[in-house]
Amino acid sequence: MTPYILRRLILVVPTLIGIITINFFLVQMAPGGPLETMIARITGEEVTAESRALRQEDSDSSLQIKGESAPAGKSEGAENISPELMEKLRELYGFDKPLYVRYLTMLRDFAVFDFGDSFFIDKSVLELIKEKMPVSISLGIWSTLLVYLVSIPLGIAKSVRHGSRFDIWSSFAVIIGSAVPVFLFAVILVILFAGGNYFAWFPLRGLVSDGFADMTIMEKILDYLWHMCLPVFAMLIGSFASLTMLTKNSFLDEIGKQYVLTARAKGLKEKTILYGHVFRNSMLIVISGFPAAFISMFFTGSLLIEVIFSLDGLGLMGFEATMSRDYPVMFSTLYVFTLLGLVLNILSDITYCLVDPRINFNAASRG
């Protein structure tokens, strides 16, 4: 097992470099960029220390931006900005250096987890990630945990009662739950239970209430769970369907195998057969989907939920960084989630071996 894990860890490096490289050059070819965003901000509100300093130094320059598009090779509005200010902007964001130099510098910095500073927020990217991480971790862990706690028992119950009324009606509920988009269900929950038009039982925004620091430990726990209830429930509804059906089909496949018939012929109890033999074998395919499920919950699935419930997490930060072309935040978020996904895949393989010692990845790789 150790040689296999070492090979997988070594493969993490070229995989990370490949993904970051493709995205780096694709982003460079996309229209718009940090220069255009900063020019717009300088001419509007002074949102960062850099823009305030640059605007003060260029107070005598004309900073009005026309509605027409900028000529090729120039930033939008660059024709109305003094050459000195434009050069300072290019130097501020590193665009005074060749493309390959910026690319190699990014790889060198990312290798030591130096993500630099945000272009438009007066903080380092690491500070931003530390600030947003608790929200995304809360959503990801609670949602994934509840999905598995609901889906696995439900899938087992459906397999044992295959073809019964319970199986039919629960399948109908599962299909309805999977058909409703997560964001739509979240909006429905807000309208019904967060003061939209009916009940105001749950808070609409934030992870904790005002005055959280002054609460007792028990009050803090209850307040936190109160805020997490609707977002996690919205993510749960849209995610448990596939895992439920996967668990059911896996159990049905195992129940029909010869070793189950032999165990029944020996007089073993049904619960002993299901949870002592069938469960371990059928869970292999469920375990294999854990990394993808967690990453989906952690980033993709939580993005719209964070927007709707005003939860300031990594998903929302990455989305806003993409819209504003905040390159350090964009690439750092991609790097973190890619690395996390690769590591979780390796952990999934290790779990395979712990659940079923018969699996030998070393023998498979040699074959």
UniProtKB/TrEMBL annotation:
tRNA processing is among the record's keywords: no
Keyword Membrane annotated: yes
Compartments where located: Cell inner membrane; Cell membrane
Pfam family of the protein (one): BPD_transp_1
UniProt keyword annotations, A-Z: Cell inner membrane, Cell membrane, Membrane, Transmembrane, Transmembrane helix, Transport
Gene3D superfamilies the UniProt entry points to: MetI-like
Segments for region (Disordered): 56-78
Cellular component, GO, one term: plasma membrane
InterPro entries: MetI-like, MetI-like_sf
Transmembrane segments: 9-30, 135-156, 168-194, 224-247, 284-309, 329-348
Membrane topology annotation: Multi-pass membrane protein
UniProt GO BP: microcin transport; transmembrane transport
Residue ranges of domain ABC transmembrane type-1 in the record: 133-348
Family of the protein in this entry: Belongs to the binding-protein-dependent transport system permease family.
Name of the molecule in the record: Binding-protein-dependent transport systems inner membrane component
Source species: Denitrovibrio acetiphilus (strain DSM 12809 / NBRC 114555 / N2460)
